[in-house]
Design a protein that fits this description.
The chain has one domain: GIY-YIG endonuclease (3-Layer(aba) Sandwich), CATH 3.40.1440.10. 44% of the residues lie in helices and 27% in strands. It is built from three helices and three strands. The longest helix has 15 residues.
C-alpha cells in the first residue's frame, strides 16, 4: 500500500506533494529528522491531503498528476476551503 500526500506550510504558504509506503515516518522526516532537502526550509508542515494507492506505479502516476497546474489548483482549493 502506498500513500500520495500533500503537505502545506502555513507560515511560508508552500505545498509539497509526494508518495510513500510509510506516511508516519515520512511525515516525521519532513518535520523533524531530515537535515537536508527542500522541505526543511519551510517547516512546520501539516498533511492536508492523503490518497491510498494499491501499487507504487499507481502512486507515482497520481503524484505526477497532482504536481500539474490542475493538481496544484485542486490542493490550493482544499487549503482555501479549510480557511473558511
Amino acid at each position: 500500500m502506498f500513500v500520495v500526500y500533500a503537505l502545506y506550510s502555513k507560515i511560508h504558504d508552500k505545498i509539497y506533494i509526494g508518495f510513500t509506503s510509510d506516511i508516519t515516518e515520512r511525515f516525521k522526516s519532513h518535520n523533524e529528522l531530515a537535515t537536508k532537502g527542500w522541505t526543511i526550509k519551510f517547516r512546520p508542515w501539516e498533511i492536508i491531503y492523503q490518497e491510498h494507492c494499491s501499487s507504487k506505479a499507481e502512486a507515482m502516476k497520481r503524484e505526477k498528476q497532482l504536481k500539474t497546474a490542475t493538481g496544484r489548483n485542486f490542493i490550493r482549493s482544499l487549503i482555501n476551503n479549510a480557511k473558511v
